[in-house]
Amino acid sequence: MTFLSSSEVAYNRNAVSQEPPASYATKIFTEDEFSFQIKSKDITIKLGSTREEVEQQLELHEDYYKHTNVYQYKDMSIHYKDGRVDGIMIDDPAKFKTYKTPSGIGYGSTVQEVFQQYGKKAFIDTKKGKVQSITYVMEKNKQGNYHVISSFDHAILEGGFQNMKALSMAFDQKGRVSFIMLASHEFAYNPEFNMDDIQ
């Protein structure tokens, strides 16, 4: 199971793409963006869904990983907090091909396609010139919409991350999405682990 690491990418300012402010418009996203869909089957699993809503669409979970409190369904892994989805992860290519974000990003999407939908204002991890992962951190404004942020400075000053959500992707050797996660900031950067269960 893969989680975001707060060590290298998350708080490394140099990992943020530095493009001139005039070269992109700030894109606005709604709560709906934090979901995976199969439009042809009318399935939508989103952050904030209840466990009952998820299981009406995905049926009962197939496995449960107590040490991370993550439920494995036939199509995805889901973490719940207080009975609501706060983390969704997909990393199985065979299943991932059918799920997309509302912006059309899914398994096999290229780095360029991701940038076209979400912009280059992101935390980007590269190795030998190839993109390894891209993480978009989005903050909710007073109108209830989200915009991508490139620094955590003001959030730290204001004392909270509760209005932030993350969209994170890993890329394979061919530069295509091979893992994707939607999560609350808390789950993305501080996933819970039951250490008693790990030992």
Please give a quick description of this structure.
This protein is of the alpha+beta class and 199 residues long.
Describe the structure.
- The chain has 199 residues and is α+β, with helices and mostly antiparallel strands.
- The protein is built from seven helices and twelve strands.
- It has helices at 6-10, 51-58, 93-96, 111-118, 153-158, 185-189, 195-198, and strands at residues 28-29, 35-38, 43-46, 63-65, 70-72, 77-81, 84-90, 123-127, 130-140, 146-149, 164-171, 177-184.
- Strands 1, 4, 5, 6, 7, 8, 9, 10, 11 and 12 form a ten-stranded antiparallel β-sheet that branches.
- The model is unreliable at 1-24 (pLDDT under 50).
Order of helices and strands: HEEEHEEEEHHEEEHEEHH
Global geometry: globular
- As a percent range, the share of strand residues is 25-35%
Spans of at least 5 consecutive residues whose pLDDT stays below 50 are: 1-24
Largest sheet: 10 strands, antiparallel
Rg, rounded, reads 16 Å
Helix-strand category: alpha+beta
Assembly classification: single chain
What is the distance, rounded to the nearest whole angstrom, between the alpha carbons of the first and last residues?
Answer: 17 Å
Helix content: 10-25%
How many beta strands in the DSSP annotation? Answer: 12
Give the helix tally. 7
Query: Mean pLDDT across all residues, rounded?
Result: 80
